[in-house]
Design goal:
Elements: E1 6-9, E2 14-17, E3 25-30, H1 41-59, E4 63-68, H2 86-94, H3 98-115, H4 131-143, E5 147-150, E6 153-156, H5 158-162, H6 175-181, E7 197-202, E8 218-220, H7 222-234, E9 238-244, H8 248-263, E10 268-274, E11 277-279, E12 282-283, H9 294-299, H10 311-319, E13 327-329, H11 331-351, H12 365-376, H13 381-399, H14 407-424, H15 430-453, H16 457-469, E14 472-477, E15 480-485
Parallel strand pairs: 3-4, 3-9, 9-10, 11-13
Antiparallel strand pairs: 1-2, 5-6, 6-7, 7-8, 11-12, 14-15
Length: 486
């Protein structure tokens, strides 16, 4: 088990030696997507970063329970408990039931993360599946004197909480300044304090998603769901809580407050946040016209893109920046990453062809040690990539006959690349994968053709429908059968 891992803790604003509460078990909670629209690249960066952390913790010998929620209820357009419910608004726009919206975009989210070859979390709970837990937590917060009812809506009393706890511990903001700078909103006069936020919201007559509660029909606030689900699956105290840096000021601040008001315990020992994405130096956003979806990036289907870039190229590009640093997208940067990724994959294709010698001109242990040292330094993936390029240089040198490597060092080299390229970074050779897919599909199409010639139409249809369910569309013509991704 790795005992030298240093994590940057947003809570204390410094690097700390990682010491799990119940080693070797690690509990990690990451705020998942709000599934009312397509997943954006900012989300992808967060989940790719925590996939890296999940993989490295497992590699280091920890038993990790990784919980990543799905927000499928209670998310209003504004951060101040105002506006329309996003799911209901999207459902009306697309003329679907809210849970059809949830299903559609949840599947899309999973499809995108599969393209990036991320591991699924240990548990992926949904807000709508944990309404009872949220109601029970709200009741406990009220019993402890930190929440109040106003016309069927339950509000968290920030000023009452702040008498005992530090509400701004995560951001280090000044509470008095926050109160002074928070404007009064129309229709918000049922709150006692300007910073109070909703734990439970009374349903309007037109509200589509609603549940019975001790305070009447309504739906949970956005923040309470994560507190309830993290406590259910990881306990009142757990190790790591993560998400994008945009969540720290409001969502994660309110999570800490809710959890402490309920259990009198700080929920997570380490708080970790990924940084934002920019495009040519400008923050990525829909309003700026520079926000594009992963599928647009893969296809090059955006005015700012000169061409498309494969999922592994994009993932490699993201890993070349530290998760806490700003990541700037540009065609030039993506081109450079594409070349670097191909160089790495080419070296790996040559690795299996190397023949060991009696002696060795190279030592692999220092490179492997540097990789571990870099990952132990708050998951410093850019430094690891530099070391992997050094390993690639050794592979190319030996393959070209300009250097020798012994069997022992070759075994270390193979293990190094397996561990860091495949197991920890989760990269894969897309060219090899495509060749394998083509070969398998050619064989399946031949089997289907044979079934048709034998008038075994049931088998023929079963193959066609089976491929269709996996996203592969067959097209028959007089020249034969072709396929494409549906």
């Amino acid at each position: 088990m790795n005992t030298g891992l240093q994590l940057y803790n947003t809570l204390t604003r410094k690097k700390e030696l990682f010491e799990p509460l119940n080693a070797p078990h690690v509990g990690m909670y990451v705020c998942g997507p709000t599934v009312y629209s397509d997943v954006h690249l900012g989300n992808c960066r967060t989940f790719i970063s925590f996939d890296l952390i999940f993989r490295y913790l497992k590699y280091s010998g920890y038993k990790v329970r990784y919980v990543r929620n799905i927000t499928d209820a209670g998310h209003l357009e504004g951060d101040r408990d105002e506006g329309d419910d996003k799911f209901a608004k999207r459902a009306k726009l697309e003329e679907l039931e809210p849970m059809e919206i949830v299903q559609k975009y949840t599947l899309g989210f999973h499809d995108v993360l599969r393209m990036f070859n991320t591991l699924p979390p240990s548990i992926e709970p949904t807000a709508t599946g944990h309404i009872i837990e949220q109601i029970e937590m709200i009741k406990e917060i009220m019993n402890n004197g930190y929440a109040y009812e106003s016309n069927g809506t339950i509000y968290f009393d920030v000023e009452k909480y702040s008498e005992t706890y530090n509400y701004t511990i995560l951001t280090n903001r000044n509470l008095e300044d926050m109160l002074a700078n928070t404007r009064e909103l129309g229709g918000q006069n049922e709150k006692r304090g300007r910073l109070d936020f909703a734990l439970w919201i009374k349903a309007k007559p037109e509200t589509l998603m609603r549940w019975a509660s001790p305070w009447g029909e309504g739906f949970p606030g956005w923040h309470i769901e994560c507190s309830a689900m993290s406590a259910k699956y990881l306990g009142a105290e757990f190790d790591i809580h993560g998400g994008g840096m945009d969540l720290a000021a409001t969502h994660h601040t309110n999570e800490i407050a809710q959890s402490e008001a309920c259990s009198h315990k700080q929920p997570a020992k380490y708080w970790m946040h990924t940084n934002m994405l920019t495009v040519n130096g400008t923050r990525m956003s829909k309003s700026a016209g520079n926000g594009f979806l992963p599928e647009q990036l893969f296809a090059g289907d955006h005015d700012l893109l000169e061409k498309g870039f494969s999922p592994m190229t994009v993932k490699f590009f993201m890993l070349q920046a530290h998760y806490r640093s700003t990541l700037d997208f540009s065609n030039e940067a993506l081109d450079a990453s594409e070349k670097g990724f191909k160089r790495l994959m080419n070296a790996l294709s040559l690795l299996v062809k190397l023949t060991p010698s009696e002696s060795s001109d190279f030592e692999i242990t220092p490179i492997a040690d540097n990789c571990v040292k870099a990952m132990n330094d708050d998951f410093n993936s850019p430094v690891v990539i530099a070391e992997l390029f050094e390993a690639s240089r050794i592979i190319n040198t030996v393959y070209d006959g300009k250097g020798k490597i012994s069997a022992a060092e070759l075994a270390k080299l193979k293990q190094l690349m397996q561990d860091f390229v495949y197991d920890i970074f989760g990269l894969k050779d897309e060219e090899t994968s495509n060749i394998a897919l083509n070969s398998v599909l050619d064989m399946v199409i031949d089997l289907r053709q044979a079934a048709k010639e034998n008038k075994d139409y049931a088998t023929s249809d079963k193959i066609r429908l089976g491929l269709q369910s996996m996203g592969i569309q067959l097209k028959d013509s007089k020249d034969g059968t072709t396929w494409n991704k549906a």
